[in-house]
Amino acid sequence: MKKLMLLALTLCFLTACTDNDQDLKDPFIGTWYKFSLQGKEVSDCEKKTTFIVKEDKSISIASFEFYENKCVDDGTATGVWSKHGDTTYGITIQGDTKPSLRKLTFSNNNNSFRFTDKEHGKEFTYVYKRK
């Protein structure tokens, strides 16, 4: 009877843990869409910009921009991602020789992240949300 009780308790603990598989994955893995730039929500067109980050370290980035009253597909880039410390990630686009590093700050139970990028001497802060 004690063995049966121990077996039943073990099964309860094992089945209770199966829903936590997502917690074991890197928080960067998933599909993300652009949500805001400089604290201002982007257009519906720009929200089509997505990062697809896979467990196999591959990444696909589809970019969209609102230009001359039209939503323009800026193309898709593919490459690999890597982790460099606790919150620093690198993206190496196909054809590049080294990763472009960004420090990501995750929030909202790892359902959004922000990073700051320098372009032409100015800093821009982006927020992406999980789809």
SSE topology:
Blueprint: H1 2-17, H2 21-24, E1 30-37, E2 40-41, E3 50-53, E4 58-67, E5 70-83, E6 88-93, E7 100-103, E8 105-107, E9 112-119, E10 122-130
Antiparallel strand pairs: 1-2, 1-3, 1-10, 3-4, 4-5, 5-6, 6-7, 8-9, 9-10
Walk me through what this model shows.
The protein has 131 residues and is of the alpha+beta class. The protein has one domain (2-130): Lipocalin (Beta Barrel). It is built from two helices and ten strands; from the N terminus they run ααββββββββββ. It has helices at residues 2-17, 21-24, and strands at residues 30-37, 40-41, 50-53, 58-67, 70-83, 88-93, 100-103, 105-107, 112-119, 122-130. Strand 9 (112-119) and strand 10 (122-130) form a beta hairpin. The radius of gyration is 20 Å and the shape is globular.
